[in-house]
Amino acid sequence: FSEIENISSQHIERICDSKVSTRCNIKEREQGELAFFIGLLLTRVPSFRDPINKLNGEIVTKTLRDLYNRDSLPNIPDCLNMLIKEKGIENVIKGEIHPFVSLEPMVVAAREIALTFLQKNWLFYKAKPKNLFITSDNPVAFNFSNRNIFGGPAHPLSSITVTLSKDVCLTITPNASSSVTFSDSCNMNMYEASSSMISEINKLVICAADQYVYLSEKNENVRLQVSKYKNTYQKIDMESPNKKTYSIIKNPYLKSLKGS
To answer: Exposed, middle or buried: residue 205 (CB in 10 Å: 0-12, 13-18, 19+)?
Structure first.
């Protein structure tokens, strides 16, 4: 992760230095590396990884129940078997999920998401003085211009917004050939964002935030937007209506040390 972060930070620094120009030149390899980094920003946050851990917990619970119902669990002591029959196996045996089970899906998903980014238009916007971009603890926002569309960041019609600095923002939008029409749809141009556009971009960032929004200086408009949209957040919906019958170990190595 540190390697891709270091590489991407160099690309981002150079892009931000280009804000005085109307063009932002990025080589194909650099664009691919930046796309993967943005994909990781989407998948490494708790809003992505927590549902995967929860899904694995549900799988463990269901598998344990199925094995018990098929009499495939060997050597169950009679006292434990009686307790299971009385209270149910989910209330007697509780599975534990290590959070690193979501690492591989995180990387695989980031790669697949990045590939969809490379099929879309990349638009760079520079902010106005005293009217700057903000970011959050969920730094990549995605949305759809058509509210009847439901999907994730890899959807062909999704638009991506990521703040590269307080002065520069990147949006990744569907191609002009799609059913959605976007203005200023030339790739790799650096546009000056209007005040209304900056406000709309900051709104997307606020709505995607989990708990915290970050800005470089006090701004009353941002404060009002945060108050208005503070109860919204961006999260993958994988919640199960079933009772939680597993626990997620936050630090399995620390737990092992305590148990030794």
So the answer is: buried
